[in-house]
Each structure stands twice: as structure tokens, then as C-alpha cells.
Amino acid sequence: MFQITLTQGNPPVPIDLTGLTVTAMARTKSTDFDSVSAIIDVTDETGGVLLMRWPGAAVRDWLANTPKKTGVWDLQVSDGTNDPLTLCAGSFSAEMDVTR
Fold first, then answer.
1. Does 99 fall in a domain?
2. CATH value at residue 6
3. Chain-wide mean pLDDT for the chain?
4. Over 70: is that where the pLDDT of 64 sits?
5. Is residue 12 part of a domain?
6. If both were cysteines, with which of 12, 36, 45, 75 could 7 make a disulfide (CB 3.0 to 4.6 Å apart)?
């Protein structure tokens, strides 16, 4: 689980998440349909603080007996009326757990 504080500007000011939906998803390629979604809990709307985790069972299903996948992910916010805004994105690597 990761605690994330979303900020903007210089000096950084928290992004007010009130009324926004925050989502994160990973795919092998951005054009793939197969994906895994993060679970996100906003813990402080006005402070821009959220907890994000990739659920183990969903990642295992997504790996589908492949020992390792690499790809891309992003985190977006949406107000439900406009296109989602991507706040961060990057590459990732997922591997099957060694300890079971």
C-alpha cells in the first residue's frame, strides 16, 4: 500500500479531491484491453491524500501463470463531466510472489 499526496504548483499546494474520482490501472501496453486496477481510498479529500494498492488476487489473475509482466500504468482523476486528467504515469514490473 502506498500513501500518496497529490500536489500542484511551486510551492506545492494539495490538490482538492472533493467530488473527484481517482483511478489507477496497469496494462502490458496502453492499447491492451487486459488490465488490472488499483484500489484507491481517498483519506483526506482537501489535503489530496490517498492510499493506493494493487490487490494481490487481481494481480495473480492478471499474470495468468506468467511469472513476470512489464508494462505501463497511470493514475487519473475525473469529475465525471470532462475527460479524465492523468496526474502520473510510468512503467511497471509485476512478478508472482515467491512466498505463498
1. no
2. 2.60.40
3. 93
4. yes
5. yes
6. 12
Using alpha carbons, list the distances in angstroms from residue 71 to 11, 59, 90.
32, 13, 9
- Domain residues for the domain of 8 are 2-94
pLDDT of residue 100: 65
Half-sphere exposure of 81 (CA within 13 A, CB side): 1
What total number of domains does the chain contain?
1
CB-based burial, 59-74: b 16+ in 10 Å, e otherwise: beebbeeeeebebbbb
